[in-house]
Amino acid sequence: MSTTAEIPQNKEAVQVDEPTSNGTSTDTITLRKAHKRREYVQLGALFWCLFLAGWNDGSTGPLLLRFEEVYNVNHTVVSLIFVLACVGFVAGALFNMHFSPRLGFGKLVVMGASLQVIAYALQSAALPFPAFVIAYTINGVGLAVQDAQANGYVACLTEAAETKMGLLHAIYGLGALCAPLVATQFAYLPHWSFHFLVSLGLALVNLILAVTIFRFKTQDECLHEIGYESREKGASEHSEFRKILGRKTVHLIAFFALVYVGVEVTIGGWTVTYIVTERGGGKAAGYISSGFFGGLTAGRVCLLWLNKLAGERRVLFAYAALSIGLEIIVWRVRHLVGNAIAVSFVGFFLGPMYPIIMNHASRILPPWILTGAIGWVASLGQAGSALFPFVTGALAEEYGTESLQPLLIAMMAFMMIIWAVVPNHKIQ
Question: Gene3D superfamilies under this entry (predicted)?
Fold first, then answer.
């Protein structure tokens, strides 16, 4: 049999696609490197987006007492900032699911970033209390949309997906760690609202990154730039949200996220007030919030190996049990330094939980609803960051801030119950 048929007729193709020693063509290697660089750029923009989300959540705690002083309001009234933020988060969640098929990834990310710029501009002006809290609603919509899109996007990256999701939320923790360090300084200055000028600067950078890197493109177009094929059946970005809302598993995961994020932000937001009123903490008490979020960041990175070794489903129960034990120490041991250390370790063990639930959702949910479903989970989780701190504020006004620790312990135990009923198998 003649071998001429096996010889390529296109000589130019032979020259360009010359194989290397390991059998891979030089063009393929170059393309892979280009895709990898582009992926790092995209991830960098999404990391900054989550950094800003963490910054936003970490700013509130050290400033709560100043809000009460400036606007002459009690714990319940000041907690309206959480209520209106919750309204924004839920509205953003529904908006995201409904308009994702129509607007697409790039446009929604830019829209969310723009809303944050508007919100911080209003807050930096120290407007009257009604206008000040309405800005939290605007910010809530922007955060919910960006959080949903960022989580959905990273969930579609099949290579080292668990690590990338863990890093994404570690960056959130880093933002929440940095914010109290700055907010604590502004909390005792005459121009306390200038803290939001710093937030405004970070939000402007976020908007510029969203416009220049994603350029209003759809998720499939952005994924194609880094070498990923279009997802099956047009992906969840093109699915109707009633298909998402009709699945019980999605709601179970979303409810877990709601309670988890509520616990996380309640600790970060109200622990400073608790330490000041119950443990006699001074001006430096705001740094305890940084300690909590510092532990959160460290846990999301340092415990990645344990998540893989022990299995994410099993290890989450252990983290919850350890967190409950540490909260009991904060509640029953009246020692300022000991409480601060315990709060940091609570953050360390709570930290991995959010990336775990996102990874679990990507494993068990059908690919054609994945982005929309994870968007709903992330957005409802953000609603928890507003709902539970408000409940905490109302209880603190009625029963005192000592009610914080029993409430947190009960919420953590409830999280374990929800996790126990979340399916552990692929859902069709």
Answer: MFS general substrate transporter like domains (1.20.1250.20)
pLDDT at position 415: 94
Tell me: the pLDDT tens digits for 340-376? 899 999 999 999 999 999 889 888 888 777 777 887 8
CA distance readout (Å), 71 to 59, 118, 401: 18, 22, 20
> Which pLDDT value is given to residue 230?
59
Sorted by sequence, the CB contacts under 8 Å of residue 321 that are 6+ apart come out as 416
In the predicted model, residues of the chain with pLDDT beneath 70 are 1-25, 230-241, 428
Model confidence, pTM: 0.79
Separation of alpha carbons 67 and 6, rounded Å: 77
Q: Count Cβ atoms below 10 Å from residue 31 Cβ, excluding itself.
A: 12
Query: CA-CA distance, 185 to 182, in Å (whole number)?
Result: 5
Question: Which class does domain 36-421 fall in?
Answer: mainly alpha
Nearest to 301 by CA among 152, 177, 396: 177
Structure-block tokens of residue 14: 């032979």
Q: Please spell the DSSP secondary structure of 342-392, one letter per residue.
A: HHHHHHHHHTTHHHHHHHHHHHHS-GGGHHHHHHHHHHHHHHHHHHHHHHH
DSSP state, 134? H
Distance (Å, whole) CA 335 – CA 189? 28
Nearest residue to 80 via CA among 100, 56, 60: 60
What number of other Cβ atoms are within 10 A of residue 367's Cβ? 14
**What pLDDT does residue 107 have?**
93
Model pLDDT, residue 420:
94
